[in-house]
Amino acid sequence: MILSVLRKEIRRRIRWFFTSSVILLLVSLTGLNGQEEGNRPKEKKEIPPLKERIFYGGSFGLQFGTITDIQFSPLIGFWALPRLGIAAGPNYRYYKDPFGRTNIYGGRSYIQYLFLQDLNSIVPLGVHLGMFLHAEYEILSLQSSFWKLPPYTSERFTTKTLLAGAGISQYIGRRSALNLMVLWPLNDKGFGLYSNPEIRIGFVF
Known about the structure:
Layout: H1 2-39, H2 50-53, E1 54-63, E2 68-81, E3 84-97, E4 100-116, E5 129-143, H3 144-147, E6 156-171, E7 177-185, E8 198-204
Antiparallel strand pairs: 1-2, 1-8, 2-3, 3-4, 4-5, 5-6, 6-7, 7-8
């Protein structure tokens, strides 16, 4: 009788010791794992390959009437940073007014910073608009006989203009957006090429 009770007590203590040891081991392993994760450096986000950072786009404008102004300006660019885009491309304009007609051509480059990716994250109205700052440098070749009084030193001359402003992006796909920009020419030469402000509609994809 006494031996039977003694065996039961020994078995109970062995079970208690084994259970306590397992619980203690699990708690220790959990603590070590959490400490390792806390000390482990965060994995850097992989930079997307260049082909996924390249984008295309441009703008196209039409004006008919007393003044005809047809503009075509394609571009290619890439996202240097997740919110910083750099682009460049040619620019062509056919311009006609009551005094004559001329061809304007050249190129432009710009840098654009998307300071707000999605307006809905701040104002939850279901409106998914991005907002950006925009700076652009444009070089155009103009016909001397159309834009200047004689005498002419050359048949054509160049004008360089810096424009700056801001805009909004309406997303129409994962990589596509329609952009509306309001830009101010900072050093307009007075040839009437720009309104003040200059309103442009473009797209990227």
